[in-house]
Design goal:
By secondary structure, the chain is of the alpha/beta class. Helices cover 33% and strands 24% of the residues. The protein has a 5-stranded parallel sheet with strand order 5-2-1-11-22. A hairpin with a 4-residue loop joins strand 17 (255-258) and strand 18 (263-265). The longest helix has 19 residues, at 179-197. It starts with a strand and ends in a 7-residue tail after the last helix. The model has no long low-confidence stretch (mean pLDDT 91).
């Protein structure tokens, strides 16, 4: 009798944590075949992409090879992009793999499943704003973050040779004051200080002009007002020009244009406003929302098919109070845990339990300058406001928790030691 095959599409935080647990508990014991499908060969924790974008984090040191990780944790990895889904025969279609020269490496393939989990995360939503796709950077993947980093370095280098037609201040426009936009704004000031210290640029941080543009009345609109206000004050102290209640109508090669007619001149533009699930999800025959998120039951099963599950940013999951699970990293982590238990229950013929989101609080890191956030205390959901070194410690622990989930305690402990050594052995930022 063949063992059931569980296929997970998407190796982000939730997807990778899920296949790791399934592989260790079911795959190694021959109780199920676990397979991960992703269009990239490596994983990096998405909340760190703003650090990759500024060079504060070297993606080459922190990324995880899916193939190697699969071998060590009892699951299989397939490189590919999903282009079709046949629910009746339970078959996925994967697109051909093409190399950089345009040659076909692998043809289109079919992949069967018994249980399917979709965990492809989200991408930035430009809301159809003219010029965004052509003139703005996105930070949805390590490749995009690396593209911004190289463009940033080149822009700093250009200011080493002042010209008559060039401004004396380098300007960066960031549209969207959620966590990504806010943390990137602070990281840019840290990066400018280090680049000046290493002699890459003559510009100092007071010659950097960062515009943070948000359509909502305040920054970090999804977080408590006390955190938003504290972060706002710290950003302004750093020199960030914060524009709230400001809607962007179009982007030009060297400027961002707002609805009130303001023209914000920029050398670099970043779009970090809004998210949506990948558009292909609406082409699979499943019920989705306007932003392409798959509608699921509280058990994380698709409302259309009990053999298809979804988790993380790409899933629209209802809660008992009528709200939706927010698209946050902690939600994906919690859903991976619940889905692991539900998939085991399904294989054993037991009933599935609903997912209940537990808000553990929010933390925002402002590079090495500061950190601000809140921790939720017990069932009363009362929040404890924290900042400074304590907040930075808890912020760093979030990544260590993710590493522990996919590597185990011993390897994570060794990684902490290696990271500490690298601070002495390597430059504080990636300069090449």
């Amino acid at each position: 009798m063949s063992v059931p095959r569980i296929v997970v599409i998407g190796g982000g935080a939730g997807g990778l944590e899920l296949v790791t647990r399934l592989g260790r508990r079911l795959g190694r014991r021959g109780r199920a075949e676990i397979m991960l499908v992703d269009r990239h060969t490596t994983h990096i924790w998405k909340p760190l992409l703003h650090e990759v974008a500024t060079g504060a984090l070297d993606s080459g040191l922190d990324e995880i090879s899916y193939q190697g990780h699969a071998r060590a944790n009892g699951y299989h990895f397939q490189l590919g992009t999903v282009t079709g889904l046949d629910r009746e025969s339970r078959q996925l279609t994967l697109a051909p793999i093409i190399d950089d020269e345009g040659h076909e490496v692998l043809p289109s393939r079919s992949l069967s499943y018994d249980e399917l989990v979709i965990a492809v995360g989200s991408v930035s939503n430009d809301f159809g704003t003219p010029g965004v796709g052509e003139y703005c950077h996105f930070l949805d993947s390590p490749r995009q973050a690396e593209a911004f980093r190289k463009d940033m370095l080149n822009t700093f280098l250009r200011y080493n040779t002042p010209r008559q037609d060039q401004r004396t201040r380098m300007a960066v426009g960031i549209v969207g004051a959620g966590a990504t936009g806010v943390e990137l704004a602070a990281e840019l000031y840290d990066a400018s200080q280090m680049l000046h210290a290493y002699g890459v640029t003559r510009l100092e941080s007071d010659h950097l002009e960062v515009h943070l543009i948000e359509a909502a009345p305040g920054i970090l609109p999804a977080l408590p007002e006390r955190i938003s206000q504290a972060v706002h004050r710290e950003l302004e102290r750093l020199g960030v020009q914060v524009h709230v209640a400001t809607r962007v109508t179009r982007v030009e090669p060297s400027a961002i244009i707002t609805a009130d007619g303001q023209r914000i001149e920029t050398d670099l533009g970043v779009w970090a406003a809004g998210i949506k699930a990948p558009a292909f999800l609406s082409e699979l025959g499943l019920t989705t929302e306007r932003n392409h998120r798959i509608r699921v039951e509280s058990s994380l099963q698709s409302i259309d098919d009990p053999h298809i599950f979804a988790l993380g940013d790409c899933a629209s999951c209802p809660q008992e109070d009528g709200s939706q699970v927010p698209p946050r990293a902690q939600a994906a982590h919690q859903q991976a845990d619940r889905l692991y238990k539900n998939l085991r229950a399904r294989l054993e013929g037991k009933p599935l339990k609903p997912f209940v989101f537990r808000d553990r609080g929010s933390l925002i890191s402002l590079a090495h300058f500061d950190a601000v956030g809140s921790l939720m205390r017990g069932a009363s959901a009362r929040s404890l406001f924290i900042e400074g070194h304590l907040a930075k410690f808890f912020y760093a622990s979030l990544y260590r928790m993710h590493q522990r989930a996919i590597h185990g305690s011993l390897k994570t402990g060794l990684m902490v030691i290696v990271d500490g050594l690298n601070r002495f052995l390597k430059p504080r930022m990636k300069l090449h």
